[in-house]
Amino acid sequence: MKQELTARKLLSPERERLILNSLTGGIRTIAELSARLGVSEATVRRDLQSLENQGRIRRVHGGAEPAGIAGIEPLFNEKTNIHADEKNQIAELALRYIEDNDAVYLDGGSTVLALARKLNTRKNLTIVTNSLMAASELMESSHRLILLGGEFRARSRTLVGPLTGRILNSLTIQKAFLGTMGFSVEDGISTSDPNEAYTKELVMRHARKVILLLDSSKIGIPSFAASGVLSDIDAVVTDDGIPEKTAALLRKRHIEVVTPGASGTR
């Protein structure tokens, strides 16, 4: 394999993809990655710095590990600052799905929070959420706000787990807007906490339309706990970094793909 990789000089995006693939099994040392890619350790360090700046990996002493795996999920404030421009664009696109008088669900996560901050442009919404951050944004609005009960999860500032079912089982939600820690065509949606995964799956069973909001850095990188399959999703709203192959596979599964491009869809 090393001979194949060193037949020509790899470009930075190619090296980064190979590093991400190598990290799916957990922590890798700089020496291991250097041997895998056939490049110097200094080059690996530069690539790791780039990937960490994108929020896709977390550097550790002598190596790196994938971001989003259970136990190393970024704190909420950290996530808010990662890919902030992309998240704001995604929220603007997602807002188009919401009409006056809708009943919507807002998941936890920084991209969905960006959407919550834009809902003052709509009237008479019924908003169901498990996000304390979204609730804080909306508590002074004129919208009807329903906050789920459940176990408090400090890292995501959400209410999750089986107790959320007491309210969700009595509701029909028109449109659910979900965030995610990981996503791939093969594995679907995934997150770092099983209780959070449980609540996401329950929401999708009670929603008529499920819209997944994610920046493209999460595509192809699964997290710890599966929280939904492609058949659960009606639309994916993301940025222009989504690989063309992934977009084509999603459309083939009859999932709408929305990006900030000129046409708004791909």
Please explain how this structure is put together.
- The chain is 35% helix and 22% strand.
- The chain is an alpha/beta fold.
- It has helices at residues 2-5, 12-22, 30-37, 41-53, 76-81, 84-95, 110-116, 132-138, 165-168, 194-206, 244-252, and strands at residues 28-29, 57-60, 63-66, 103-106, 126-129, 144-147, 151-153, 158-160, 173-178, 182-184, 188-191, 207-213, 225-228, 235-237, 256-258.
- The strands form four sheets. Strands 6-5-4-9-12-14-15 form a seven-stranded parallel sheet, with helices on both faces. Strands 1-3-2 form a three-stranded antiparallel sheet.
- The chain is elongated and about 60 Å long.
- It has two domains: 2-66, Arc Repressor Mutant, subunit A, CATH 1.10.10; 76-258, 3-Layer(aba) Sandwich (Rossmann fold).
- The longest helix is centred in the N-terminal third of the chain and has 13 residues, at 41-53.
- It contains eleven helices and 15 strands.
- It starts with a helix and ends in an 8-residue tail after the last strand.
